[in-house]
Write a sequence for this structure.
C-alpha cells in the first residue's frame, strides 16, 4: 500500500471517529457489552472493530486481569484505533478467517459490521470457533431503513443528487434489519440460544450540515466513494430542507434510530 493510499484511509477513519461515532454508534457500545455479559477478567474479541469504540469500552470492563483484542480489515481504521487505545491488541484481518486459535476468548462482540462481511455465515462460524465452550456472542446490526426515517430521507436525497451507487453506500448499513433474516442466519451458523432484542436510540448531530457531512466526508470515503466538492455543497444545501423536520429549536438535529442486538452461545 502506498503512503498516499494509507493516508487517505487514515483520514477517512478519522472522519468516521470524529463524526458518526459520537453521534450514532458510541451509545450502543454499553448495550452490546451488557448483552455479552462482559465482566472483569474476560478475554474479549471485537470483530470488525473499526476505530475501536466497542473495544475501548470493553477494556474498561475487563480490567487488568482481562484482555481485549480487535480485528478489522481496514489499516486506516486500525491506525486510529491504536492511537486511541494502545493497550488493546489490534490486528488486521477478515471476519471470515480470524487469526486466533480455537477457544481463545470468553466473549466475541461485533457492532455494525456483520452487514458488510463477504460471507456472514462463515464469519459467525469463525466467531464460534474462537469462543470457549459456553462463550458469549453479541452482535449489533441496524434496524431496517424504513424504520429510521431520517436516513431514509437522506438516502432518497442522495439517490436523486449523486446516483444509486452513492445512495446504496448509505443504505448498506440497514440491509440486515429484518429479524427473520437474522434468526435464520444465526441459526444456520450453529449459534445456540439465539435471542434478538431491538433497542431504541437517538441520533444527535449539531446540525443538518454536520449530519450529512458525516456520511459525505466520513462514511462514503470508507466505502470507497469520493464526491467532488461541488457535489457535496449541492447536497448540503438541499439537505437543509429535506431534513428540516428533525431540527430542534436550538438548531441541532435529533431523530429516532433503532438497532437489533443478537446474542447467542457456543454450545
Amino acid at each position: 500500500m502506498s503512503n498516499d493510499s494509507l493516508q487517505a484511509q487514515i483520514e477517512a477513519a478519522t472522519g468516521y471517529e470524529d463524526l458518526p461515532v459520537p453521534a450514532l454508534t458510541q451509545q450502543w457500545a454499553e448495550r452490546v457489552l451488557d448483552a455479552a455479559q462482559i465482566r472483569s477478567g474476560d478475554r474479549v474479541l471485537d470483530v470488525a472493530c473499526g476505530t475501536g469504540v466497542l473495544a475501548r469500552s470493553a477494556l474498561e470492563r475487563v480490567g487488568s486481569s482481562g484482555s481485549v483484542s480487535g480485528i478489522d480489515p481496514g489499516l486506516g481504521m486500525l491506525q486510529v484505533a491504536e492511537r486511541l487505545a494502545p493497550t488493546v491488541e489490534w490486528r488486521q484481518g477478515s471476519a471470515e478467517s480470524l487469526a486466533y486459535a480455537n477457544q481463545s476468548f470468553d466473549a466475541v462482540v461485533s457492532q455494525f459490521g456483520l452487514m458488510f462481511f463477504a460471507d456472514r455465515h462463515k464469519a459467525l462460524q469463525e466467531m464460534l470457533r474462537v469462543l470457549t465452550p459456553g462463550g458469549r456472542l453479541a452482535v449489533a446490526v441496524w434496524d431496517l431503513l424504513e424504520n429510521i426515517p431520517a436516513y431514509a430521507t437522506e438516502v432518497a436525497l442522495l439517490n436523486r443528487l449523486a446516483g444509486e451507487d452513492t445512495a446504496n453506500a448509505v443504505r448498506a448499513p440497514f440491509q440486515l434489519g429484518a429479524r427473520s433474516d437474522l434468526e435464520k442466519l444465526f441459526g444456520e451458523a450453529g449459534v445456540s440460544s439465539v435471542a434478538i432484542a431491538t433497542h431504541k436510540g437517538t441520533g444527535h448531530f449539531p446540525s443538518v450540515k454536520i449530519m450529512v457531512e458525516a456520511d459525505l466526508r466520513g462514511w462514503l470515503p470508507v466505502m470507497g466513494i469520493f464526491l467532488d466538492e461541488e457535489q457535496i455543497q449541492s447536497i448540503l444545501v438541499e439537505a437543509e430542507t429535506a431534513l428540516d423536520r428533525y431540527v430542534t429549536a436550538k438548531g441541532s438535529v435529533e431523530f429516532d434510530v433503532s438497532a437489533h442486538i443478537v446474542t447467542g452461545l457456543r454450545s
About this structure: Residues 3-18 form the longest helix (16 residues). The first strand starts at residue 43 and ends at 47. DSSP finds ten helices and seven strands in the chain.
